[in-house]
Amino acid sequence: MVAGSIIVARTEPGLAAVAGLVIAVAYAYSLRRRPMRPCRPCGGSGANRGRFWKYAYGDCWCCHGAKGHVRLGVRVFQRSRARQLSR
Ligand SMILES: [Zn+2]
Questions:
Q1: Ligand 1 centre and the CA of 17: distance in Å?
Q2: Cys staple from 46: which of 13, 67, 71, 73, with CB 3.0 to 4.6 Å?
């Protein structure tokens, strides 16, 4: 995707601007519809399993049981929303 847009930028600057705009709009729409990303350490389960007693679990050390995190784009562009989501 990035390499493609660089090639397009060399040949047709106007087209690259349009492509960039389309990507930006798609990203903004995606942020609106899906503001969260899954937590990687717990795989989106929100639980932190014990190593010895496998049935035992507590809150994930990373997301604290929230199962996911607010996406970076939301934190940067929609600050008040990010605060509501992380609560
Ligand atoms: Zn987690």
A1: 38
A2: 67
String of DSSP letters for the chain: -HHHHHHHHHH-HHHHHHHHHHHHHHHHHHHHH--EEE-TTTTTS-EEE-SSSTT-EEE-TTTTTSSEEE-HHHHHH-HHHHHHHH-
Rounded to two decimals, what is the model's pTM?
Answer: 0.68
Q: What is the pLDDT of residues 40-83, one digit of tens each?
A: 999 989 999 888 998 999 999 999 989 999 999 999 999 999 89
- The pLDDT confidence band at residue 9, using thresholds 50, 70 and 90, is low
Residue 13 CA, ligand 1 centroid: distance in Å = 42
